[in-house]
Amino acid sequence: MxxxxxxxxxxxxxxxxxxxxxxxxxxxxxxxxxKIPVKEMLLRETDGNYNYDFHPAPQKQxxxxxxxxxxxxxxxxxxxxxxxxxxxxVEDTTGRGHRTKSIDGKLRRSIFxxxx
Length: 116
Hints:
Shape: globular
Strand order of the largest sheet: 2-1-10-7-12-5
Number of helices: 0
Structural class: mainly beta
CATH topology: Jelly Rolls
């Protein structure tokens, strides 16, 4: 299962990286990844005009988009769009961080799962 990782490079800037979590056959219930230790889960809702300037992530966390569409921009100017069903692994807890804004002008719901 694919996810996009945001991390701080040696240049103190946020970078994107595509990662793939291997899934294993678990019989009738489908395919599962290895267990990932987590700390807590938060539900989040933002308005359609959400536009948050550069910021590092407050903690390492997964973000799973349930609806809406966002654009994330790094300090180097690279931009990527994410939509419902996309998984982000956000680890850029130092440096300048990233900028996030809503694209479609609609209410956005997401799940934040913080990591140990």
